[in-house]
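Q: For a teaching session next week I want to show students how multiple molecules come together into a single three-dimensional assembly. I've collected the sequence lines for a complex. Could you give me the predicted structure tokens for the whole thing so I can convert them for display?
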Amino acid sequence: MRQPEPATPSSDRLITLAQQGDRHAFSELVRQEYARVIRVVYRLCGDPQLAEDAAQEAFIRSWQHLPRFKPGPDAGRSFRNWVLRIANNVALDMLRRERPNLELETQPLASKNPGPERQFVQAEQANRVQQAILAISPASRAALILREVEQMSYQEIAETLEIPLGTVMSRLSYARQQLRRALASDLEDWHE
Amino acid sequence: MSKAIHTWLQAYYDDELPARRRAQFQAHLAECLQCQRDLRQLEIVSQQLRQDPPMSLPATEVFVSQINLRLPRRPEQPRGWRALERGWQLAPLGLLGSWATLQAVLLVSSLLLWSLPWLPGGDLLAAGSGGFGLPADWLILPLPGSQPLQFTQSLLSTLPGFGSLSWLLLLDLAASMITGLLYLSWLASWWIRTEQQFNPSAHA
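A: Of course. Below is the structure for the complete assembly, covering every listed component.
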């Protein structure tokens, strides 16, 4: 079983200070979590600009409601899961209102020492994966991303998305099946 | 592959199987080529998902400063806010305690009134208290076109101090209803606060 992250005193302290109105403490929390939040939201919606906007909105709403937030035993992790819940809801609202730019441009990925051709192949591969993710229904997509990207347990996913444990498992199963079907030809190549 | 095995496979991969079931599944996995293949595919898909997505992140300080520019001014909590917050959290206990105290007082009062005739000087008191009570027939609810329930009247009116007891009963009912309403109001406010905490986007 995955070991829980040790509670960092700094996360506890930062959250307490931020709850009392300390903007510097909140800024530090944002620094710690923003990359994760943006990546998760990007996986959910597929639009980099929308992901950044949704992440910003999520942090602003978390600031407004922070006084009522009650951290769990692992304060840093529970704050992160709370912000991700808000970000997931914001992203879904934005997706319903706006048409995201789903035309993924091939972007070279930061890689250690790739040649240009290797970079292009990696970027193409990443784009195919992202397109396959976006083809899954939003509800199942959220469960998949939280599990695979954030390594959340089933219980944490259930609490974050406010769904029963059984629903988490069925959505994960559905999402993975869809993904395997969409990437069937690639799976053979990656297996080699 | 059966649905159960498929579910176990996923849970096994996610490290969510209980120990006993995990051992059972490992024994099955050693013999099932299909499950081995499916497990390998799960691993490959996971590896792809865990790689960095094809996007570039904004610079840390740029993002943080954009957030800071947009942060609304949160009003400072007034002095004594924590005490108010604590008081609100303890309100149900206070309501329960008040109700229990009132019930105890009413019970003792009822017992005293009931036992008045047997207490020294109680006859005089009983005569006096009856005068402050309601007539016994107030409890009779005559239905349209029907006779009042005379049995009820005759039974209740035999209780000593019945008049005052009826006042106590009214008081008890009123207090219980008010306490119940206050508690339901507190429950509603607690639910709203919890919703706002976990779904702030729904209340934006």
